[in-house]
Amino acid sequence: MDGVRWAFRFGSWVPTRSEWILAARCVQLEEKERIGHFVFAKDAKSAMAGRLLIRKLVCEKMGYAWDGFRLERTARGKPYLPRPSPSSGPAHSHIHWNFNVSHQGDYAVLAAEPGRQVGVDVMKTSRPGSSSTQEFFRIMNRQFTDLEWRNIRKAGSDWDQLDTFYRHWALKESFIKAIGTGLGFDLQRVEFHISPNQMREGQVYRQTRMYLDNEEEEWTFEESLLDKDHHAAVALGKQDICTSKEDEAPPLLFTLLSFNDLVSRATPLSEEDPAYWESFHRKKDAPSRQSEQQ
Questions:
Q1: Helices (H), ranges, the chain
Q2: Could you give the 3-state DSSP secondary structure of residue 205?
Q3: Rounded to 5 degrees, what are φ and ψ at 107?
């Protein structure tokens, strides 16, 4: 069974009144309320996209009706679908899907795999807000190993160095999210040997290797460019069923979805709430510089 790679460009999504009210009806009540508390419109849009991506996955790939399941959150806030009892759920619900969502820059992305740990991260290359590139690197010094910093600094111009920095950052975040350890993990324990040095849009690369505590790990990392400024990294753990590298499924490109794609199988979970649109319409349109693990 193939995995899933979906992307939604919420940065260019300007919801109509009917779209936003429909989206709000198609997520769980507590999630709707949580999204409503965001100050900035961009944060609200990214969070809404993430929730719709997850529900679409559970509906289309796990076989549940849109209104036939309830998502829960771990103690660390990561969404998950509780395992059904043998007498409930779809006939093929014994297949355990792992999924992960990330949103940053202009995209929300989802990666999912049956029977395999998975983590995903997307990072947009951007210039530091109030400091120079080199001052920004000094502040972030402890997040990378000496080898990784050498690779970042030899990339070329300040912009090329930033691009390589965010590529490394996406890789590290994808692994951390796959293992679910959160903020307490020492990022210098993980070292990435990236390959190739340059990537092209429309291709997925699996050559990068990861070392944990100086030992090479049997993790697979898929890297791709959603566009020239957005790196996406997918961390894939060992498969539950033993397979060789030759038998491993080919890498998947992210499929770019529209809003209609997100809600194509949706069933509203609540009544219309016109006030929710009014609240969204009043939100500030300043971008967020933070990405939220979902």
A1: 17-25, 29-36, 41-60, 133-139, 146-153, 158-179, 259-262, 274-281
A2: strand
A3: -125, 145
The predicted model scores a pTM of 0.91
Q: How many CB atoms lie within 10 A of CB 4?
A: 21
Amino acid type, 218: E
Q: What is the torsional sign of CA 268, 101, 116, 186?
A: negative
CA distances in angstroms from 122 to 119, 145, 198, listed in the order given: 11, 21, 17
- Phi, psi torsion values for 60, nearest 5 degrees: -85, -30
Question: CA triplet 22, 276, 257: central angle to 5 degrees?
Answer: 35
89 pLDDT above the threshold of 80:
no
pLDDT tens readout for residues 10-25? 999 999 999 999 999 9
The structure tokens listed for 275 are 């006030």
Provide the angle, in degrees to the nearest 10, between the axes of the packed helices 146-153 and 158-179: 140
Q: What pLDDT is stored for residue 243 in this prediction? A: 53
Closest CA to 281 of 24, 9, 8, 2: 24
pLDDT digits over 139-161, tens only? 999 999 999 999 999 999 999 99
Q: What are phi and psi of 50, to 5 degrees?
A: -60, -40
